[in-house]
Amino acid sequence: MSHIGRPTKPDKRTLRQEYLAVRNRLTADDVREAAVALADRALELPELARARTVAAYVSVGSEPGTLTLLDALRERGVRVLLPALLPDNDLDWGAYTGEGSVARVQHGGKMALFEPSGERLGPDAVTGADVVLLPGLAVDGRGMRLGRGGGSYDRVLARLERAGARPALVVLLYDSEVVAHVPEEAHDRLVHAVVTPSGVRRFRSGA
Description:
Helix content: 25-40%
Shape: globular
Number of helices: 5
Low-confidence stretches: 1-7
Number of strands: 12
Mean pLDDT: 88
Strand content: 15-25%
Order of helices and strands: HHHEHEEEEEEEHEEEE
């Protein structure tokens, strides 16, 4: 049976399922070891070394672990902001002051998230960040990030653009998630760098 034209590339939904399946095979030890290495690599970033405010997130499940990194940033005196998911999938923000400042929140049929339990600072608080650490499932050689598909960080990136804010955009991933190609849509934005347990890769397009 012949197929006319070029073979179709996997769409975002298919790719998300594939990358999540790989993550779900990781053991708790794999995740813990990767989190320590990821924090070590991220802390070498000059952008984080001079940052006064960092917008980050608390990893869940088999995501590349972030708590080690968040605590190390706080020890440096960095103000760390964490997101809280709003009903329309936009993100509010609150300060991270240690593990006691986050609470597990179940959002309907979606995954449970760890969100700031203190004062909410409003969606625009992210525009004051020097660095924004982004979750994702993959990034390609251009710096195109594949997110989970909820659109929350698309809103964050659009808000930064509208405000004229230019923080360093850094995605945290496993080594195998730096890939050849990620499909893009008109609203997608390039990131400046990816940090994995084995190192940092910068993207010229995001410089």
